[in-house]
């Protein structure tokens, strides 16, 4: 099956339709397992390893036995550093030395990217926007989205190159994320309900997926 992308101008009028390369974006290229592995790896690599507790060796305390061995009615207890006592060090709790990062080779990353785009195309969630680089203000960006009926959707704008004016224009619109082709990841695509290709970025995406 061949998928296509409808392009619109900033006035909301459809201008053209481009077909996706069926040798790259097809049912045969979809791998849910690889995409799931990518999402897990991406989230793991973004994880901030900040949970940290002290070991018994890192806590200063008196080594004196709290009670005599017998006669007090208490259980036999050692010094105040025992982990079974409240408000002291704990055993088997997290340390910030644990490594949660995961790796994935380049070939699998491309499969994940092709899968994410193909699934969005299958769901009819791809569209193109021409002359998007001319948008300079938030009000203009909001007006364009309103004409396209996209207000309220979680959108991902994919630009062919960095454009600070466009980025500043759309960053304050709720639900809109902005990335360039160089920073596009399958995780960004999965999170978005609509994927918006700006200008001629589709050609670059095809090259990136090969």
Give a written overview of the molecule.
- Helices cover 30% and strands 14% of the residues.
- The protein is of the alpha/beta class and 210 residues long.
- The protein has a six-stranded mixed sheet with strand order 2-1-3-6-4-5.
- A hairpin with a 5-residue loop joins β1 and β2.
- The longest helix is centred in the middle third of the chain and has 17 residues, at 106-122.
- It starts with a strand and ends with a helix.
Gist of the model:
With 210 residues, the protein is an alpha/beta fold. The chain has helices spanning 32-45, 106-122, 138-148, 164-170, 186-191, 201-209; strands spanning 4-8, 14-19, 126-129, 155-159, 176-180, 194-198. A hairpin with a 5-residue loop joins strand 1 and strand 2 (14-19).
List the helices and strands and how they pair.
Elements: E1 4-8, E2 14-19, H1 32-45, H2 106-122, E3 126-129, H3 138-148, E4 155-159, H4 164-170, E5 176-180, H5 186-191, E6 194-198, H6 201-209
Parallel strand pairs: 1-3, 3-6, 4-5, 4-6
Antiparallel strand pairs: 1-2
Number of strands: 6
Instruction: Output the helix-strand order.
Output: EEHHEHEHEHEH
Strand content: 5-15%
**Rg from Cα:** 27 Å
Count of separate DSSP helical elements: 6
The biggest beta sheet is recorded as: 6 strands, mixed
Low-confidence stretches: none
What is the residue-mean pLDDT, rounded to a whole number?
89
Helices and strands: which structural class? Answer: alpha/beta
């Amino acid at each position: 099956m061949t998928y296509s992308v409808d392009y619109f101008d900033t006035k909301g009028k459809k201008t053209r339709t481009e077909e996706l390369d069926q040798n790259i974006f097809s049912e045969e290229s979809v791998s849910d397992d690889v995409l799931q592995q990518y999402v897990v790896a991406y989230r793991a690599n973004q994880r901030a390893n900040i949970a940290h507790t002290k070991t018994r060796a890192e806590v200063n305390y008196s080594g004196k036995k709290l009670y005599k061995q017998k006669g007090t009615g208490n259980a036999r207890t050692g010094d105040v550093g025992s982990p079974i006592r409240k408000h002291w060090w704990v055993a088997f709790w997290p340390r910030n030395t644990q490594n949660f990062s995961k790796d994935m080779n380049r070939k699998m990353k491309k499969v994940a990217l092709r899968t994410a785009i193909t699934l969005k195309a299958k769901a009819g969630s791809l569209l193109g926007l021409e002359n998007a680089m001319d948008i300079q203000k938030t009000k203009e960006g909001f007006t364009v989205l309103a004409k396209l009926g996209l207000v309220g959707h979680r959108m991902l704008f994919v630009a062919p190159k960095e454009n600070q004016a466009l980025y500043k224009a759309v960053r304050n619109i709720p639900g809109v994320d902005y990335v360039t082709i160089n920073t596009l990841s399958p995780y960004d695509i999965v999170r978005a309900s609509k994927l918006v290709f700006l200008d001629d970025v589709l050609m670059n995406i095809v090259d990136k997926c090969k």
